[in-house]
Amino acid sequence: MSAPRRDSGEPRHLPVSAGPATAGGRARAPRHTLSHEVILERALVVLDERGPEGLTMRGLAGELGVGPMALYTYFRSKDELLDAVRDQVLRGLADTPTDGDWVDRLRAIGTSLYRLLVAHPTLIHLFATRPLAGTEAAEATEAQLSALRDAGFDRVTAAQAHLTLLHHALGAATWEVQLNAGRGDADSRRRRQASLAAMSPERYPTIVELAAELVTDTVGEEQFASGLELILAGLRQRLGA
Amino acid sequence: MSAPRRDSGEPRHLPVSAGPATAGGRARAPRHTLSHEVILERALVVLDERGPEGLTMRGLAGELGVGPMALYTYFRSKDELLDAVRDQVLRGLADTPTDGDWVDRLRAIGTSLYRLLVAHPTLIHLFATRPLAGTEAAEATEAQLSALRDAGFDRVTAAQAHLTLLHHALGAATWEVQLNAGRGDADSRRRRQASLAAMSPERYPTIVELAAELVTDTVGEEQFASGLELILAGLRQRLGA
DNA sequence: ACCTGAACACCGTTCAAGT
DNA sequence: ACCTGAACACCGTTCAAGT
User: Fold this and answer.
1) Quick check: B213 and A156 CB within 8 A?
2) What residues contact residue A188 under an 8 Å CB cut-off, 6+ apart?
């Protein structure tokens, strides 16, 4: 019910009736085509399409045409594979501006992080699941911190603001991805509207009053942007004081 | 390595050598002691102690002294059980103030949500994983929205600000829980410091400069509070304009 | 209604072995 | 070094059955 993507129905191992060297090709073992890159690329595709639960070592190996244990030559465990995927995705962060108005720079960096998180929901899951060294997105972190320092913030405030921007992007993306999951699903939308409609106007007058604004749930990136502007306004104000 | 809590070593089914009706008691089947409440309570304990991966239907049933299938009388699936746990935990949100200064009210509500998320990390995972109707925390939502409306914000801004506050708390808690997981772990701390120390001062001058501020990672709730103040300052400023 | 026990179709990973 | 195949100790859930 929550994981309708689980079984896609395709057989994992095509039963190969012919011997390995038969003419007509694409038998089961592609010999030496495996590599870190190939595995990571495929893992990311699976993760994006079927979600974290959809990635299994056995299934991934099957898709790559090898036995389950072949992957263990390249990654010591599934955990290690997931870490590698996370780092790989983070490297996909758009190049970030290092000059210009500090507010514009922070906006650009924050937005590109948010977009990356929404584009690869699995990254959110990895952020929330796997231990972080804290320097996986060094380029973006550097750009963000230097913008804050250039603006004139002290070290502590700059570090705190950096984390706040990160936290907000992470939370907003988490929420958005959750809603996205339920968006296509008519059943889920119905449940949402039903539970809003069932709210008691006496106990929850403001929720009922703002029901329209709450279900619109502002297309995601727009909502993210509004929160970002709030934080930026707070920063600008602090700079004035 | 990432899930060191996985196998606690205790046997799940004590092998009962005596018959079911032997004197001396506490045989395997406690007859009619099962209920929604008992199952949920135990599930939450397991979730808090061993994390989401640590909760299995079989294991939970074993701890309750029943066969795996006994749980399915009360919950149609593991998904349904998890939803029930989430709703149960959310009901634990501290009572929220409904009068007084709107800034104080927002601070109180935000902080109690943050604390709940950090106290039950599994809630974060459920937020990021399971479809939401959006009204699970109706009391807190109502309190937050009414504070914003009382302050004088229009409907759209109030709805957006509510979500921003939520997103920030969620993101901050996610990050904090991640760090907590690595805090006891000396290996993880070493990795963190090592990767910061290995940063090139030419490519990442600001990260290196702020290394101290970044590793301190401001005790969690303090970091959350600083972000919250930024958002509140942004709101206050918007009200003036 | 409440619970059991066997079974099915999965997992990640170890181990011994092949090339 | 790279990959296979069998095996181990798990999963969630279905199904038929017992009380």
Assistant:
1) yes
2) A181, A182, B131
